Amino acid sequence: MLKPKLLLLLSLIITGFLFTACEEVGPAVNLEPKPAEEVIQSETTPVKQSRRVILEEFTGVKCTNCPKGHEIVADFVSELGLQFTSVAIHPGGHNLTWMADHSVQDLTTEKGGRMFQQFGSGGLPAGMIDRVHFATESQLALTFSKWAARVQERLMAPTGCNISMDSQLFESSDSLAITITIDYTEDLDEDHFITVGITEDDIIEAQKQPDATVIENYRHKHVLRKVLTGFQGDIIIGQNEPKTKGLTVIRRYSLTDIPEEWNRENLGIYAMVHRRGEVKEVLQSAAIHWPE
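Predicted structure:
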């Protein structure tokens, strides 16, 4: 006859086995974050989007001619709608971006200043249209009197890829996730880069006028708040990697600790795929409103 202590031990072992055998095992949970870049090749080629021209406008609150440039951009927005994107860059370090007796908040960004050093002409206002250096122009950033003709010219240019964007807010609207999908519609073998940024509309801040007076409650549009990539963009896939028809590249970016002074109702997100080097042309751009 088995001793009582041995019987108790056998009973515990059998009971433990039965509970283990009957325990339901759920599906495996992948706790790894999604990669910053996914690459998918399809046999089908998507239909090309219409071109969306992007104008990166270098401007400043102390620049007397800049309001004329703002008016031209406003006309583009009204007339072209989804075929046009505007980014107003107040370049950090420029002497026309602050008025000591009038300015309240600084509209400049450090990366905006680096962009102006890289692409600008010295004077304000000046605008890059799809970052194209037109054959008859001496510089990349053009004076506002030339914008209309060049925008119309670029509207007819074919695109090499499509761009779609999605975004989502987390943690009481203090963290933003952005997903950008790039679908190639042509076979291209040069390196491409993506630039992603945040803009804000309707910022009330002083602005000097053409007659040298100052409007204290001027409404600034499309102001660059932050560039999420390098100021010259982040490389897509990698160096010397060909892009073929049907290739899809998914890029993800995030923004945390969103400044309280940004008015979320007036924020927007833009992205553009472009070349870099001697030729800086934008293949396509996109823009969406800040998520609710």
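Summary: Confidence is low (pLDDT under 50) at residues 1-33.
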